[in-house]
Design brief:
Order of helices and strands of chain B: HHHHHHHEEEEEEEEEEEEEEEEEEH
Oligomer: heterodimer
Number of strands of chain B: 18
Number of helices of chain A: 8
Helix content of chain A: over 70%
Number of strands of chain A: 0
Strand content of chain B: 25-35%
Strand content of chain A: under 5%
Radius of gyration of chain B: 30 Å
Distance between the termini of chain A: 17 Å
Radius of gyration of chain A: 19 Å
């Protein structure tokens, strides 16, 4: 049975709850509103978590092989990041951004239905597969959030209404995101040694993953040295995200791609 | 934080090259290094080969002694202070970043077949002068910054040291160790004892270990059904049911067709007018399917075939046909007997993701004869020795702990 046919039910449920969460913010503040926002955002996330869990058990393999499957994970992780940051720091716009992004991922998945494929090549059948991919997706989601914070910060900076809390938030997201990015890279190295004979082979995707890592490394150092130079830090962070996007989408199309082991499967 | 911030006061206008050096000087120096790298590359026109033992040990020792001398005897020299500063680090990271962008974007000789060498080394960045120099500069700034935080030792610096020292150890050992890395392949045919291996360039070399393939085993997934364009031989991959793994009794819709799988044989051969269950070499999967649409209602046997039996598809129109794709491998492994020169003799199973260790070598299942699929009589294994691996792993594990530290540090900072 093809479990993807149930996708639209779960996705619509999630979209419905997230829409309520966003509409609620238009209503004048009441005391219980924060709680309601968190409740509806979480219900939507829960719907996607249940679908992903069910899809996983029906496939009999981790759903992390196709682009459609990775989009599903972003639709799970982004709302969680939004909910946690809202709960902790009350950033409504970040919550809305993460819910909005998750909605976009769901809509793309709805318009490009994934084929249902139980096959998983032997090299991917490893205990490292799940941690490697999950940690990466989670870190990309965090770093994407940090980049939105930086764009928002740049906008505020140029309009003269900048407050330093934006960069502080971005910094927190980058540290956590960079930690997970490092874990993803290192898990990948340990896995590669077991599956392909060497921990680092300069596969184009590996090279671009290292580039992403170096990009955020520059941001961390620049920010550390001159915490007062806001504009430089904001621009660096935005540039680092451009490298990340190239790494995620671009590598398949580059002349260097050759026979990369990391190209996402379309089937 | 304290040391860095005291150097960080917004000073009155400083002349270029006046100490302490900052971002401008760092940018000029790393740009100079880039130019030097390309000049060296153009004049030597070679790709640099990794050096093996004992020369790599010597280079490593000289490099580390150099860092220690700089640190302990010239700690307060303005150049050494600059080398361990953030601006120098950022310029070094940028230099490596530039080389990595070239490597990640342009086709590389070791990755894309048929790439021609060029004057600037753009097609072999990994072994070109600019990249070697960038790595050297990177490791120098990293090493000195790490030493500065380690002496005198303070426990509050543990996260910094794990991340920086871990990276230094992993990278240095990885670069120096590449000269001692041995990766060979061996072609094993059933019941033949093989002592020789092939290098990447195809040269035969004798090995101290021999392998005898007893059997090659493969499990496959059930094959998939797909709609093919028989004029172009393309498979349609769009849509939820475009590629459907065969399961007896399954029925589904694709485009305007209602498809039902009436029967499925995992091992069959074509005889006379249909496919029959057999238990012999070269057997192929076959399925009896029913297809209904507005214009047709038919039942037929289809099969992906094999080297020993013919394939069949079901033609639906002048353009379209339902075909069975070759089954994908689920797992494959080689049962081998292993003979070591010192007299050891054992049998082992080598499987993808489960390498087998013998006398300092790791042995990997690499490939097989794809024409014969699960009936392959050939198994290709890869045999790898990397004596520097424990040092690289030591660095990697330090960085793993360091990454966890970063995650908690990010979480902990109050707003």
């Amino acid at each position: 049975m093809n479990y993807w046919i149930y996708f639209s039910n779960y996705a619509l449920t999630a979209l419905f709850f997230w829409l309520i969460c966003m509409l609620l913010q238009l209503i004048k503040s009441t005391r219980t509103k924060t709680l309601l926002l968190l409740l509806f955002a979480s219900l939507g996330a829960l719907s996607m978590i249940i679908f992903t869990y069910n899809l996983w058990s029906h496939l009999g393999r981790p759903p992390m092989r196709t682009l459609g499957e990775t989009r599903l994970w972003y639709a799970v992780f982004l709302p969680i990041i939004g909910i946690v940051t809202y709960f902790r720091w009350k950033y409504k716009w970040l919550l809305n951004y993460s819910l909005g992004m998750a909605c976009i991922f769901l809509i793309i998945n709805y318009l490009n239905p994934d084929t249902y494929n139980k096959a998983l090549m032997p090299a991917l059948q490893s205990i490292w597969f799940v941690p490697h991919v999950l940690v990466y997706i989670f870190s990309y989601a965090l770093l994407a959030a940090s980049s939105i914070v930086s764009c928002y910060g740049l906008y505020k900076f140029y309009t003269g209404t900048y407050k330093d809390t934006a960069l502080q938030l971005a910094n927190n997201l980058v540290y956590v995101g960079f930690g997970f990015l490092s874990l993803g890279l290192l898990f990948g190295a340990l896995w590669a040694k077991e599956a392909w004979g060497h921990y680092w082979t300069w596969d184009p995707k590996e090279t671009w993953a290292m580039l992403t890592w170096l990009g955020y490394l520059i941001y961390i150092h620049v920010r550390y040295r001159y915490p007062a130079k806001v504009e430089v830090a904001l621009i660096t962070l935005t540039a680092a995200f451009v490298i990340l996007l190239l790494c995620w989408f671009g590598v398949n199309y580059m002349p260097s791609a050759g026979q990369s082991v990391h190209t996402y499967s379309n089937t | 934080m304290g040391i860095q911030n005291s150097e960080n006061r917004q000073s009155t206008k400083k002349q270029l090259w006046q100490y302490p050096w900052d971002y401008k000087e760092s940018a000029i120096i790393s740009f100079g290094l880039l130019i030097v790298g390309y000049l060296l590359q153009i004049t030597t026109r070679t790709s640099i080969k990794a050096v093996g033992a004992p020369i790599n040990y010597f280079i490593g020792a000289v490099f580390i002694i150099m860092l220690l001398l700089l640190h302990f005897f010239y700690r307060n020299h303005p150049w050494v202070k600059w080398l361990r500063s953030v601006p120098a680090s950022v310029s070094a990271i940028t230099l490596v970043l530039i080389q990595a962008i070239l490597m990640g974007t342009l086709p590389q000789q070791n990755f894309v077949e048929g790439t021609k060498p060029d004057l600037f080394g753009f097609s072999f960045v990994l072994s070109s002068w600019p990249f070697i120099i960038a790595q050297f500069y990177f490791l120098t700034t990293l090493g000195l910054a790490t030493l500065n935080r380690m002496t005198p030792w303070q426990w509050k610096n543990w996260g910094f040291v794990l991340n920086h020292l871990g990276l230094f150890i992993a990278m240095t050992a990885g670069i120096l160790g590449s000269g001692d890395l041995k990766r060979y392949t061996m072609d094993l045919y059933e019941n033949q004892l093989v002592w020789g291996a092939k290098t990447e360039k195809g040269n035969q070399i004798p090995m101290p270990i021999a392998f005898e393939l007893k059997s090659f085993d493969m499990e496959t997934f059930a094959p998939k059904l797909a709609l093919a364009d028989i004029t172009t031989n393309n498979i349609q991959t769009k849509g939820v049911n475009a590629l459907r793994m065969i399961e007896k009794g399954d029925h589904y819709d694709y485009k305007n067709y209602k498809i039902k799988i009436l029967d499925y044989l995992e091992n069959s051969k074509f005889t006379g007018n249909g496919y029959f269950q057999v238990n012999e070499e070269g057997a192929a999967p076959a399925a009896r399917i029913e297809v209904k649409s507005a214009t047709m209602d038919t039942i037929a046997w289809i099969s992906c075939g094999s080297f020993a039996t013919q394939y069949s598809y079901l033609q639906l129109s002048e353009k379209e046909a339902i075909v069975m794709l070759q089954p994908e491998a689920k797992k494959y492994s080689s049962h081998v007997n292993v003979y070591v020169k010192d007299g050891k003799n054992e049998s082992a199973v080598i499987e993808v993701n489960k390498p087998y260790k013998v006398n300092g070598w790791k042995v990997y299942q690499l490939s097989y004869d794809e024409k014969f699929g699960k009936w392959s009589k050939l198994s290709v294994i890869e045999i790898v020795s990397d004596p520097w691996l424990p040092i690289v792993y030591c660095g990697i594990f330090m960085m793993l702990v360091g990454a966890v530290y970063l995650i908690f540090k990010g979480k902990g900072t109050a707003l």
